[in-house]
């Protein structure tokens, strides 16, 4: 166990002790009730951190899921005398199913359409609670029984406190574990957009649904606890206004931090209580003035501290107690199965008469070429020649209007990028697509996503319970090996966003290598690199070729291409105009005319 881990363990123990001791002290009842409310808000907020702060999907509708949990138990315990301990799983099932259906319909929406959709179902469910006869309409349901556990009467706030906070800390632990895993990297990659994550083999649709359902389940548990704490429910606490308040909590606490959810819930609840007393006294009349103050705080936060309070506190703590530098991992020999590499010189990729039309524009026109195992092929041409489009056709980011692509004897035409990544084609991007707040090691480990042998559900459950530590260590070891291969091992714990552009480009290559590809597709790998960096990159690529890797690269830097590649394909206006060895291409009249004409 290293020093960082022991520091974390000590902090966790102090926190646990504080939570346990708080109600045992002669703490006034008022503060116990406040702590219970903070716990209920924190549960919803943890889900929102996963969904919005980390997954990048803004939801205004979480209060409706709290409502489903609360109304399910309220109705079943009062009208059907079902035990509250049975209504909890029933509520979770109903919430989970509703969230799954809503998620399937709405999560495909992009931009502002998704938040608008969450507002729509938030409002719909609120009115549903208020209109249904057997749910008591706007008067709601009263006479909900208190919880009983091991002979303890949880009607007493001090007793209920322990249950609420055990659940909150449990949820915090599960969420932190989830994020610190292969599944967590996939979830964090969602914010970087679909393209990169899918190219690394991440099923983005599945992970979006996963965190949507998890966030809804946490909200549902909060609703269940709320109903048995209040002993009465009506639609008001589940309205759109409350949905906005939950979002406000995570923005204040730190929208991308699980601990920020707890902090935001505490700060908001305590602030609201103080303002509710203070403002009417100051202004001389009653009213919801605290909402105005919250509005102003929100605007100030969005302008000056978008990350919220948690990162601010962490930065302060790091200044007081500088964090211990993590040691550079010395990668052990790989323990994960690798693909069988085809014999050097055997045909690996064959592109046959491929075409792509964008409306009236023919971006790629009947282009054919091949890549043999163990060779580096360059795809060159002037700007707009169709090189990137060809790349995107090979990697499944675009679908061809005609022609075919065969890889390792299999026809892969029309497959989507995840399926193509699964077959052993990994790529980098013209405009670097890294996750800037993640470390270099974690970014590279994302490339190893497909190398886990566990299924989706098992992997997620194991990740939440931290039962996959051995496999996680193997994946991180693979990432460390890839970083060592490209000479960036000394930067493995550095945030990717802090690296120079040249290093970021090489980091993308390491991430692609971590997929254990048979073919590496590099889109302008030398763009923006200085002379020495280009030389270093060229050396890395030559070493990869020597180790049997096949590479197809698009590049503008002629010197780089000519000294590195075995074979070159030249495109102009979407068509192939020449191909051959670097020497042949340098002499080719059509190339000199069309492309190298200006460089005598
Ligand atoms: N999604 C798209 N919709 C419409 N036109 C597109 C699209 N993508 C590319 N094009 C057009 O297709 C042509 C080829 O573009 P492409 O990006 O493949 O060229 P390139 O050779 O990679 O250029 P560069 O070297 O500047 O990156 C260009 O005219 C471009 O404007």
From TrEMBL:
Membrane topology term: Multi-pass membrane protein
* Cell division found in the keyword field: no
- Cross-referenced Pfam families: ABC_tran, BCA_ABC_TP_C, BPD_transp_2
Q: What SMART domains does the annotation carry?
A: AAA
**MF term (GO), any:** ATP binding
Keyword list (alphabetical) reads: ATP-binding, Cell membrane, Membrane, Nucleotide-binding, Transmembrane, Transmembrane helix, Transport
Q: Where in the cell is it found?
A: Cell membrane
Keyword Signal belongs to the record: no
Task: Name where it mostly resides.
Answer: membrane
- Record-annotated ABC transporter domain positions: 349-598
Q: What protein name is recorded for this chain?
A: Branched-chain amino acid ABC transporter ATP-binding protein/permease
Organism name: Herbaspirillum rhizosphaerae
């Amino acid at each position: 166990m290293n020093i960082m881990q022991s520091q974390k363990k000590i902090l966790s123990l102090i926190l646990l002790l504080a939570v346990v001791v708080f109600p045992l002290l002669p703490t006034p009842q008022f503060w116990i009730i406040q702590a219970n409310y903070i716990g209920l808000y924190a549960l919803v907020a943890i889900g929102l951190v996963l969904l919005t702060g980390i997954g990048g999907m803004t939801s205004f509708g979480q209060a409706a899921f709290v409502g489903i949990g609360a109304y399910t138990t309220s109705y079943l315990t009062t009208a059907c005398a079902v035990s509250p301990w049975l209504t909890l799983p029933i509520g979770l099932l109903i919430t989970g199913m509703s969230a799954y259906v809503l998620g399937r319909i709405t999560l495909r929406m992009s931009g502002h359409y998704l938040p608008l959709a969450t507002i729509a179902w938030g409002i719909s469910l609120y009115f549903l609670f208020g209109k249904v006869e057997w749910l008591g309409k706007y008067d709601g349901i009263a006479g909900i029984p208190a919880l009983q556990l091991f002979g303890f009467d949880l009607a007493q706030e001090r007793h209920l406190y322990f249950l609420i906070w055990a659940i909150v800390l449990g949820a915090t632990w599960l969420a932190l574990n989830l994020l610190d895993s292969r599944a967590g990297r996939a979830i964090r990659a969602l914010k970087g957009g679909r393209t990169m994550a899918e190219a690394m083999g991440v099923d983005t649709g599945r992970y979006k649904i996963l965190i949507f359902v998890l966030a809804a389940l946490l909200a549902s548990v909060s609703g269940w606890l709320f109903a048995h704490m209040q002993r009465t429910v009506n639609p008001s606490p589940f309205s759109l206004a409350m949905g906005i308040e939950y979002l406000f909590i995570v923005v204040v606490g730190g929208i991308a931090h699980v601990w920020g959810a707890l902090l935001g819930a505490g700060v908001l609840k305590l602030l609201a209580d103080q303002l509710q007393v203070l403002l009417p006294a100051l202004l001389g009349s009653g009213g919801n003035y605290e909402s105005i103050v919250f509005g102003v705080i929100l605007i100030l936060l969005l302008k000056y501290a978008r990350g919220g309070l948690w990162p601010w506190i962490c930065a302060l703590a790091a200044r007081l107690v500088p964090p211990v530098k993590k040691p550079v991992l010395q990668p052990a020999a790989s323990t994960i199965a690798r693909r069988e590499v085809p014999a050097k010189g055997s045909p690996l990729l064959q592109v046959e008469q491929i075409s792509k039309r964008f409306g009236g524009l023919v971006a790629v026109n009947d282009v054919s070429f091949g890549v043999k195992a163990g060779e580096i092929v360059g795809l060159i041409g002037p700007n707009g020649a169709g090189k990137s489009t060809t790349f995107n056709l090979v990697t499944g980011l675009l679908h061809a209007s005609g022609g075919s692509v065969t890889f390792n004897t299999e026809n892969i035409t029309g497959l989507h990028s995840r399926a193509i990544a699964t077959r052993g084609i990994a790529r980098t991007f013209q405009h670097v697509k890294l996750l800037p707040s993640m470390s270099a090691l974690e970014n590279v480990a994302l490339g190893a996503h497909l190398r886990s042998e566990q299924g989706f559900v098992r992997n997620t459950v194991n990740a939440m319970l931290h039962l996959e530590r051995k496999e996680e260590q193997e994946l991180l070891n693979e990432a460390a090996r890839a970083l060592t291969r490209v000479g960036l091992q000394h930067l493995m714990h550095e945030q990717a966003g802090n690296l120079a552009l040249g290093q970021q480009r090489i980091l993308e290559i390491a991430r692609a290598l971590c997929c254990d590809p048979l073919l590496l597709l590099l889109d302008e790998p030398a763009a923006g690199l200085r002379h020495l960096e280009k030389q270093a990159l060229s050396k890395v690529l030559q070493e990869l070729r020597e180790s049997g890797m096949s590479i197809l690269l698009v590049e503008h830097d002629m010197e780089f291409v000519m000294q590195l590649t075995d074979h070159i394909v030249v495109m102009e206006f979407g068509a192939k105009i020449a191909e051959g060895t670097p020497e042949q291409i340098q002499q080719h009249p059509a190339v000199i005319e069309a492309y190298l004409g200006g460089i005598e």
